[in-house]
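1st attempt posting a full record on here, be nice pls
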Amino acid sequence: MAKIWEELKGLLREKLPDKSFSLWIDPLQVLREEDHAIELVCPNKFSLNWVSENYLKLIQDNLNRHGRENYRLALKVEAPSKKAPPPGILNAPKQLALINVPEHKKNGFRSLNRDFTFHRFVVGKCNEFAYSASKALAMNASMPYSSLFILAKTGLGKSHLSQATAHAILQSNPALRVYYITAEDFVNEMIFALKSNRIEEFKNKYRRSCDVLLLEEVHFLSGKEKTQLELGYTLDALADERKRIIFTSSLLPKDIPNLTGELSSRLTSGIITTLEKPDYETRAKILQSKSSEQAMVLSGEVIDLLAKELTGDIRQMESALSCLKAKSELLNARIDKDLAEEVLQCHLPSQRSITMDDIKSLVCRYFNVDPIILASKSRKKIHAFPRNIFVYLCRQLTAMTVEQIGRSLNRNHSTILYASEVIDHKIKVDKKVKNQVDFLMKKLMEGKQ
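the predicted structure (as tokens):
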């Protein structure tokens, strides 16, 4: 019958416009031929209805010409193939991969960064308590808490510390099931479970098949009411079993917009620790550690210069060291104070200050929005996105406080913090947003030189 159907399609192709044939006839496939009945498979219900109303008689007439006048044509929709979940979703891995434990394969939703260990975490006054609390939780010391909330701005080491805790836990007991996941991935996994009728499997994974939960970037649960409710139940179940939980966030729960009071209470039921910007002594130790990892030999004079000038986050220091090494190798130059000063020119802001008005003017021109719109109550994406970009740039390039930025937009400080974190996250996952932010920063810096 398949051969006859191909011949029929050839006749139909001559009688129908190319677009009509390609869209409605060509996708049809023969399913079976039995008892004087031929079943054709349509790709979807809409296709079935359209072919039935517009082409079924034409197909039947041509079928009759092939000596099949006693055959009955039937159309049906092909059962959709079961959509496979993204890698790792709703699997119940025994544990995540761990360096030096080769007998266990990588099968977790997200794998741990092998470099994020306690051994490589530089401890100083800015992070000493967070380090100690994390290590105590990892070693299962006789502590009166089983959950830890690590608060820090981007680039200060909260992911390093949370994953170092997981590494230490698995090092002491490789049989434990450790789940490391971001809040965004948790939301996506729950949505998939709901759509595929696997919510019970989802609940079982996190409530009964999990020994340690690492939930990153919980501030992205903002406004996700159903997910917040499900997470609350999950945290209760884990807490009842004294399972260890680590949260990381750039915002305190009370500052996350549209976060329920119930979930906020659960997130802060354990120990809350903070990672502050490193002081001079800690910056010097970090620079020494990072340069050693890159096989760089830096004099005390260069370390002192970099530690004094690079007052941002750890990523700023890593970037400066990478540039310093590259420049030294490519130019065959010795790493000294002069070379370090050249590199610093690319990593330090311009001497002339950038104002909120500078940023507002550029953002409005770039996105073609009225400055009044930025301070309006509009939540449309075409207005909210430029507003969030404005907030992010103000926080990055000016010394204005969160409250001052908020007043310029008629927003409270929580909304400003959240807007900044949204853009920071988009920069990591969306190349287009990163390019836009880089372009705007470059324009602002050029305008002040």
